[in-house]
Amino acid sequence: MEVRVRSSIELAEIPSTIGLKEGACMRDALMKAVPQVVDEKTGEYIDDPDFWDIRLNEVPLYQLKEGLNTRIRNGDVIRLEILIHYS
Description:
Structural class: mainly beta
Mean pLDDT: 89
Number of helices: 1
Distance between the termini: 42 Å
Shape: globular
Strand content: 25-35%
Number of strands: 5
Low-confidence stretches: none
Strand order of the largest sheet: 2-1-5-3-4
Order of helices and strands: EEHEEE
């Protein structure tokens, strides 16, 4: 299945689409699209609200009932907002 990845800034490392197997979850998608936000040892989300905001179909990751275990469906959109703070 295909999942779209949208980012607030364009980075070559972040693909615009990713292919996943049926039954994949949000953790699988993030590990493929932006692995730096998932701890490779524990599989847990590395929460840094001062640096990024991640959403699935416009729902913030922290509001997903199943969190990283939320199943992904064909055509879903993962949005990665890179937060830039100016002083």
